[in-house]
Amino acid sequence: MSQASVRTALLNTIEGIKNNPAMSGVVFRADTAWEEDVRCSAKIRDFAPFTIDEPLELGGQDSAANPVELVLVAWAPARRSCTPLMPRSWRFRWKRYLLRSVATWT
Hints:
The protein is an alpha+beta fold. It has a domain at 29-85. The chain has helices at 3-19, 67-82, and strands at 31-36, 39-43, 50-52. It has a three-stranded antiparallel β-sheet with strand order 1-2-3, with no helix packed on it.
């Protein structure tokens, strides 16, 4: 997706939310399952499942990326693709990241 098409998609989304504020109530979901020690598997939408683990120093087997590494990877595209599209007049700056995790026991 080119920068122009990302910009168009973002502006269309903003306009859609302005016209229908209920559109802003998007919910993202991911399913995780504990496997062993600190390793778990994760499933998001229709993508292939993947593993999350910790390095040996943190009690894992170092078989996959750990949660902090995944968060860092996830934020990179958001900063790279969205920030340059924000008009300077909006005075948009990344000041703070707020992450919220909700878990339920079943």
